[in-house]
Design a protein that fits this description.
Strand content of chain A: 35-45%
Largest sheet of chain A: 4 strands, antiparallel
Low-confidence stretches of chain A: none
Order of helices and strands of chain A: EHEEHHE
Number of strands of chain A: 4
Strand order of the largest sheet of chain A: 2-3-1-4
CATH architecture of chain A: 2-Layer Sandwich
Number of domains of chain A: 1
Distance between the termini of chain A: 9 Å
CATH topology of chain A: Alpha-Beta Plaits
Structural class of chain A: alpha+beta
Largest interface: A-B, 26 and 26 residues
Oligomer: homodimer
């Protein structure tokens, strides 16, 4: 199992229609083959400047690679992520010992 | 539900006995009342400089606060974390809409 996570902050005003649109449209990523346990999260610690997070799991690296190359993911990154995200940090995890 | 996560890097050499000791002893945190789904993780993305992660969930803020104040947690932070961790980032998540 590989858990792919990203913490991020949007360029949009908090609570704006643009923010809601981005978060709603991100749900399309959940339908890409191989994506398991897709979660849209609010980041609530005051110890960093990120406002949201996405988390998803893949069975293996092949499933992760297929997601990365999938047209729905590629289009989302190009048309929404690259335009609307101000800052982000990707963290990918596997169980310790795996 | 609040998911408390921390990504970190140790001062120890990768694969060292000191590293193994730290990761093994961290398992004691899993026994603190209120801690659910405790996970010790390896961070595998090349897009950041963290090597490990811990993740745990709490039912609510009261459970999180109780963990924070619990003597086992306080001692671990004082005796191990503050001494052996080189860099870290805490990210706390709640489900979007919660």
């Amino acid at each position: 199992m590989i858990r792919h996570t990203v913490a991020f902050r949007l360029r949009h005003t908090s609570g704006s229609a643009e923010e809601r649109s981005f978060l709603a449209d991100a749900e399309s990523l959940a339908g890409i083959p191989g994506v398991e346990r897709f979660e849209r999260l609010r980041q609530v610690s005051s110890k960093n400047a990120f406002a949201f997070g996405f988390s998803m799991e893949f069975a293996d690296q092949a499933a992760y690679d297929a997601y990365d190359a999938h047209p729905v993911h590629v289009a989302f990154v190009r048309d929404r992520w690259a335009v609307e995200v101000e800052d982000f940090l990707e963290l990918d995890y596997v169980p310790l010992g795996a």
